[in-house]
Amino acid sequence: MYLKFILIVISCILIVDFYYYRALKQFVIKLKPTLKNTIKVSYWLFTLATLIFMFYVVSFFVNKEPAPKFARVYIFGVILIILVSKLIGSLFIIIHDIKGLFNYLKRKLAQNELPSKTRRQFLKNTAIIASALPFGTLMFGVVKSAFDFTIRKQQLNIPNLPNSFKGLKIVQISDIHLGSFMSDEPIKEAVKMILAQNADIIFFTGDLVNEITEEALPFIDALKEIKAPLGVYSILGNHDYGDYFYQKDDIDGKKHNYKLMQAVHQQLGWKLLLNEHHIIEKDNERLAVLGVENWGKLERFPKLGDIKKAKQGTKKEDVKLLLSHDPSHWEAHVIPNHKDIAATFSGHTHGMQFGIEIPGFKWSPSKYLYKYWAGHYTKGTQQIYVNRGLGFLGYPGRVGILPEITVFTLR
């Protein structure tokens, strides 16, 4: 599996680098020979270093060891930023090639002249300049926005809400991805912000780690400070099962990861709901908190969530709040089959950690993968809130879509 993955990644890197190099050659053509050659050699040395790094990281997976955190978070992140920047710049080279082909055919058919060499050089030079914009933006997201924790407030109108729970305050956090944190200082800051909301209940909707449960161990002391009068309730996300580290047939490794994950939640003082529910009673009135294991519509994600099992033992008149990591579960199962679930709380998408959010307008590439990707959505009498996540994964930053702590007030 790892060899196939590394070969695909290397092929993509080499194709992009060879293609982009054409623009680089054009851009430096007027520089002094020494400087020009230095830039060209440095370009390919960086490509070589990238390929060596990819093999270096994969070697840890083969040996069933986690790669050094700084390498897999920030070195990989910078490589990803550079690759994305080159891809965007390459669009202009593609335009250049399409125009070249069109004009070649035009000349052959109509004996027209080709556009000037200067015009074609301009497109290649533009490719370099166009790469600088995403590179600068993505690097800014790493330096400035990765830990810019944001409080978002949302009122939830719940039909038939018992009087005892009117005005109830819930805080939701999701997708912490502890494997991406170099220290616990940002986590401590987030915990302070969470506690400052004076929530009655706290929900955590999955993806505590990136790959293995061991990533959570250094952060237990910081996270166990998260407390609420009516409890902290949690579920698992797709990254919490060890599927991204252990091979498919490594049953023992996955069992170890699963058991340790349960133990960590217990140490944190969080009630982990594995296709089960918890009844909160106040003044003889009830609120049912349901939590299911991960269920994702895409094939590569576990489909372990069982809402029917989680509802067993609840009463028909109970107001039911569902914690389900992947919002595709809401569309596929909750809407058509579980009309009695008043509200669903999800995460998973991170809003792809990149997008635009201004009053009246919201966009992210995430919307092309998920119909419900960030914020509050309603359909008929049902509703879902998709938290944008507290941490990050892959790209070690955020642009436009900031890390989120959501505060709900039930009405």
Compact description:
This protein has nine helices and 14 strands.
Describe the protein's topology.
Layout: H1 2-27, H2 33-62, H3 69-110, H4 117-145, E1 150-156, E2 169-173, H5 185-195, E3 201-204, H6 220-223, E4 232-234, H7 251-268, E5 271-272, E6 276-282, E7 285-291, H8 307-311, E8 319-323, H9 328-337, E9 341-346, E10 356-358, E11 361-363, E12 375-379, E13 382-386, E14 404-410
Parallel strand pairs: 1-14, 2-3, 3-4, 4-5, 7-8, 8-9, 9-13
Antiparallel strand pairs: 2-14, 6-7, 10-11, 12-13
Which structural class matches the secondary elements?
A: alpha/beta
State the separation between the terminal residues, measured CA to CA: 50 Å
CATH architecture of the largest domain: 4-Layer Sandwich
Strand line-up across the major sheet:
1-14-2-3-4-5
Total strands: 14
Strand content: 15-25%
The number of distinct structural domains comes to 2
The parts where pLDDT drops under 50 for at least 5 residues are none
One letter per element, helices H and strands E, the order comes to HHHHEEHEHEHEEEHEHEEEEEE
Fraction of helical residues:
40-55%
Query: Which CATH class of the largest domain applies here?
Result: Alpha Beta
Mean pLDDT: 92
Number of helices: 9
Largest sheet: 6 strands, mixed
Here the CATH topology of the largest domain equals: Purple Acid Phosphatase, chain A, domain 2
Shape: elongated
Give Rg in angstroms: 25 Å
Let me know the CATH homologous superfamily of the largest domain: Metallo-dependent phosphatases
